[in-house]
Amino acid sequence: MRIGVTPLHPLGAQLHGVRVDSLYRNAVAHLRALLAVHGVLVVSGQQVTDAEFLRFLRSFGDVVFTTGETPVPGCPELNVVTNVGRTRAPRSSFHVDTSYLRTPPAYTALRAVRVPARGGHTLFTNQYAAYQTLPKDLRARVRNRQVTHVVTGLDLSDDAESCARHPLALRHPLTGRTSLYLSTRQRCREVSGLDPDAAAQLIDELLTHSTREANVLQHRWRPDDVVIWDNRCVMHKADHAGVVGDRVMHRGTVVDGATWG
């Protein structure tokens, strides 16, 4: 399998010559490396079933279901992301997935099942660039800090993980590069060495810096798109403003504990 790569700006890459339902082992290693560099990979024209999509995810590691989400009928390891049946548009802020776990998913992927006639794009941030472009004084405030991430918006069982600490400056295990590891303001509960007001101010500054327009990729969904990204160097959010039509995505997350942080 020969994989063509077209870099996107300010992050991400469009792949060519890839079938997610028939990857060879060496192709998976190549995709891991591409994800570590580009953060987001877009693979178009993938007319695959949920079983084939799940097999694609498993080639990267152990698939984990996010407790509290709605499972895909007949494929409970995946969950449904949709606006169908809702009286108001879903809300989304820039975040990384399930950062409240001690070992969060390294990868998340979406399969486009139904694409709206208008809107419903997904936005991604380049967290390598976010760290590299920090002013010196702000980078000094980030160095050696740990953030306590907590769960929000999900009804978890009593024995589920709901809190974890992670470095604010996260070294990617495959590239050696440092990224800003953030999630929503509400999920970043505490910052080591700072009082609550100072912690909140720092997180707000970093989120504003990370999500500036020049640092954001907008992915406009097409039927049969598969998009996978590396949570260790990317934040994401869905843009639900002005959506016309049904938006249905099937989502899976992959834990790769051997290469986290």
Describe the structure.
- The protein is an alpha+beta fold.
- The chain has two domains: 4-88 and 103-125 and 217-256, Clavaminate synthase-like (Double-stranded beta-helix, 4-Layer Sandwich), CATH 3.60.130.10; 127-210, no CATH class.
- Helices cover 20% and strands 31% of the residues.
- It has five helices and 17 strands.
- Strands 1, 2, 3, 4, 5, 6, 7, 15 and 17 form a nine-stranded mixed β-sheet that branches.
- The chain is globular.
- Keywords: Dioxygenase, Iron, Metal-binding, Oxidoreductase.
- Its cofactor is Fe(2+).
- Belongs to the TfdA dioxygenase family.
Question: Can you tell me the residue ranges where pLDDT is under 50 for at least 5 consecutive residues?
Answer: none
CATH architecture of the largest domain: 4-Layer Sandwich
Tell me the count of domains.
2
Compute the number of strand runs: 17
> What amount of the residues lies in strands?
25-35%
What is the CATH domain class of the largest domain?
Alpha Beta
CATH names the topology of the largest domain as Double-stranded beta-helix
The helix/strand series, from N terminus to C terminus, equals EEHEHEEEEEHHEEEEEHEEEE
Pfam family, one: TauD
Cofactor: Fe(2+)
InterPro entries: TauD-like_sf (IPR042098), TauD/TfdA-like (IPR003819), TfdA_dioxygenase (IPR051178)
Family: Belongs to the TfdA dioxygenase family.
